[in-house]
Design a protein that fits this description.
Helix content is 52%, strand content 13%. By secondary structure, the chain is an alpha+beta fold. It has 2 domains: 183 residues, no CATH class; 113 residues, Nuclear Transport Factor 2, Chain: A. Helix 1 runs antiparallel to helix 2. The protein is elongated and about 65 Å long.
Length: 312
């Protein structure tokens, strides 16, 4: 006679590894108390312990396929919390209290590229559907920190025009809210996040190619209405500036942008670019830049161009 009791850890882990988001949600809910106990034992009561548990949940989300002994997934989850807590203790000593979350970056170039792993099953869509539930100010810092190449706190602060302390606070709020939404939406159907990113990638390519030719097709012009505003250091202080004149000026100076990476949600888009100059026009003043756009009904409302410091 088949068992009618709750599924075992092994069963849930294997189902999660097969792409069943609800199974991973059940696992995280089942082990939340022992995970928190590990964090408290190392960090004491306070927001750092909560953040460590949230970080561990995100790490488990993208690395569940690494579990070799599904029956021992509880020990694996506690080990992830332990590593997250130790990372926080180390960074408090070395980074003046700013928490480094290198183990959580969802973008790298190694063979276990997390973004590629997530794309293998429905968990990618689960993550992004939960991300869409965050307020834009929280979603932007999370997208920059964990999905883009703009990961330094000071760079994120510059891009968002807020103090570094506010960046840390918003990241903590965003991770807490994301963990909450992930658990509450684990069994729901999720939109295709890859389609949103691919649409944005095509928009970027067409925009760059058309701007280089000096003529934008109508469907791209529609995305950039006259009221679209250029913000940041490329804008004119005290004036509302449309972004296309700045693009044309850069092109006239021989500057060319080459799309490297796209991060897209429904109303926030990040295009990361490599920068070159045409032969004979000098070296580029910056090797990389990023377009950070806010949107409404797909149309761009604001564009801020930021210049991240290349990471060693």
């Amino acid at each position: 006679m088949a068992s009618i009791g709750p599924p075992t850890d092994e069963e849930l882990t294997r189902r999660a590894q097969a792409g069943e988001t609800g199974a991973l949600g059940l696992l995280l809910a089942r082990h939340q108390a022992p995970m928190r106990a590990v964090a408290l034992s190392l960090l004491g009561y306070g927001p750092d312990a909560d953040d460590a548990v949230q970080d561990a949940a995100l790490t488990a989300l993208r690395r569940i396929g690494d579990v070799r002994d599904p029956a021992a997934v509880g020990a694996w989850l506690k080990a992830i919390v332990r590593n997250a807590a130790r990372m926080r203790l180390r960074d408090k000593r070395e980074s003046l209290g700013l928490d480094g979350l290198d183990h959580l970056h969802l973008r790298d170039h190694g063979p276990s590229h997390p973004e590629r792993a997530v794309e293998q099953h429905a968990m990618r869509d689960w993550i992004w559907e939960a991300m869409e539930e965050l307020p834009p100010r929280l979603r932007l810092v999370l997208m920059l920190r964990h999905f883009s190449g703009i990961t330094a706190y000071q760079e994120i602060a510059t891009a968002c025009e807020v103090p570094v302390g506010t960046v840390r606070s918003r990241l903590s709020q965003a991770r807490a809210k994301l963990a909450e939404v992930l658990l509450s939406t684990a069994t729901q159907a999720h939109d295709d996040a890859a389609a949103v990113t691919e649409d944005s990638r095509q928009e970027a390519l067409i925009t760059l190619e058309s701007a280089a030719r000096g003529r934008l097709p109508g469907d791209i012009v529609e995305l950039w209405p006259p009221e679209a505003e250029l913000l940041g250091e490329l804008s004119t202080p005290g004036e509302r500036t449309h972004p296309f004149p700045a693009m044309r000026e850069a092109l006239d100076q021989g500057v060319r942008q080459h799309l490297r990476h796209v991060v897209a949600s429904r109303d926030i888009t990040i295009w990361e670019m490599d920068v070159t100059r045409l032969p004979g026009t000098g070296a580029p003043s910056v090797p990389t830049l990023a377009w950070i756009m806010s949107r409404q009904d797909r149309r761009v409302r604001t564009l801020r161009v930021v210049f991240p410091v290349p990471q060693r």
